[in-house]
Amino acid sequence: MGPPEAGDVTKLLKAWTGGDVSAQERLMPLVYNELRQLARHYRNKSGSSETLQTTALVHEAYMRLVDIRGVDWRDRVHFFAVSAQLMRRILVDTARARGAIKRGGQAERLADVDPDRVPAPDSERAAELIALDDALTALNQLDPRRARVIELRVFGGLTVDEAAELLDLSPQTIRRDWTLAKAWLLREMSGGRGA
Predict the structure, then answer these.
(1) pLDDT per residue over 139-161, tens digit each?
(2) N or C: which terminus of the chain has fewer CB atoms within 10 Å of its end residue's CB?
(3) Contact 110/189 with Cβ under 8 angstroms?
(4) What pTM does this model have?
(5) Has residue 110 been placed in a domain?
(6) Which tens digit of pLDDT belongs to each residue from 52-81?
(7) Could you tell me how far CA 72 lies from the centroid of its own chain?
(8) Count of domains forming the chain
């Protein structure tokens, strides 16, 4: 069975936004496997077996999605972009809760970082996840579009074409933003010692 039809997901999202509780019940079986793929994408990028279980991450993301009010769901890609934001928050919150940095402290500057390989929140490199989140938050203040591209690609697992569709940009612009934003993040996270 292939992925659900984008039109079906969009119709159910709009119905859910309109207050149709049964639309939410019909939506979850359609998007559950894709949410699992999104969670697996993160786990694969972490390069570690020490991470939240895929099912636990999907479950937590779903519980937060259900509680979201007032979102004007545009389409399937928008839904998964919001899911990516939620998974980012869950992963960073998990890293912080597990004591990756001391209470009240700042994430340290890291000498050897790779924005393409996000560490697991419960790994020895969890401070790198927090540093990535901090750097991404700083980038968002300077250049929200490029920060969004990183979030969609790293935490959302979206392809260049999917990110381009969601942000209504050309794939070439996404590729350029991806390259420049990664270089900026690397420099920021390594305290100026990176690219």
Answers:
(1) 999 999 999 898 888 877 778 99
(2) N
(3) yes
(4) 0.67
(5) no
(6) 566 777 778 777 877 776 677 777 777 777
(7) 19
(8) 1
Residue with the two structure tokens 């859910």: 16
Q: Which residues contact 70 (CB under 8 A, 6 or more apart)?
A: none
Give the residue carrying structure tokens 């597990």.
Answer: 98
Residue 135 lies in a domain: yes
DSSP, residue by residue, 84-141: HHHHHHHHHHHHHHTTSS-TT--PPP-SS--TTSPPPTTSTTHHHHHHHHHHHHHHHH
Query: What is the SS3 assignment for 33?
Result: helix
Q: Which residues lie closer than 8 Å to 167 by C-beta, 6 or more apart?
A: 145, 148, 149, 152, 174
Task: Confirm whether 49 is domain-assigned.
Answer: yes
Task: Assess contact for 186 and 195: CB atoms under 8 A.
Answer: yes
Interval 97-139: pLDDT, tens: 877 554 444 444 444 455 556 666 766 667 778 888 888 999 9
Model confidence at 17, pLDDT cuts 50, 70, 90, reads confident
> Domain range spanning residue 45?
6-100+115-189
Helix (H, G, I), strand (E, B) or coil at 183: helix
Q: Copy the structure tokens of residue 100.
A: 């990756």
